[in-house]
Known about the structure:
This protein has 227 residues and is an alpha+beta fold. The chain has two domains: 30-133, 2-Layer Sandwich (YaeB-like fold); 138-226. Helices cover 33% and strands 31% of the residues.
Amino acid sequence: MESLKRRLKYYGIGFGFGIIFLVFFFQNRGCSWLPGNRVKNSIMDRLIVVSEDTQKKMDEKGLSTEDLVMVLNDGDVDFGQSEKDKKSKVYILEKEGVKFAFTLPYESFISEAFVGVKNAEITPTKSGYGDILHFPADEHLVFPDSTDLMTCQQDKLGLISPKKILDLLNESGKIDFAKSDFTVRPKPIHYLVFTKDDKEVGAKVIWYKNKLNITSFEAEGLEDCLK
């Protein structure tokens, strides 16, 4: 009996040291059960966008896209300053004295990034355009509707392949904040724009099963598809 107790004691000590080691070694390396990494993973699962104003502030501070990636890799989540108890959340992350805010609107695939913030009391952008700085690592991210309208529009635009649409969004995609509405229920409306053959194409998109579900396009030459 004494031998069993001694074994259990040593097992408990070893297990405890193992947990401490894992927390220390993996705290910023994708250990998804840690609260901070769950937040970071939720942000990285979205399209990360910055408004024109935020981009100017980043330029003034000498910050780049890499700095946003780094704060999501090994920055600290300030849960005390974050707005985490509402459906639409805002998280504050800090690295080397610089604070960033990332929005997580309810049922939205967008996370808007802000820089130089003090707390979560920020106003999401409602005008102008936002650059898309990050896409989730999913080559099947785009999922167009299978309606007659979408089939017609895809055919006229030469965008039958969802992969081609994703490639164009990666190359020139932006979000039009004025035409997007994150308050619509049950699903917010996102309006993305990209360039194809030197022409602007707009896309109304919702988030469905972690996919960019395109419900319709807007571009020159698509009028016949509405008839």
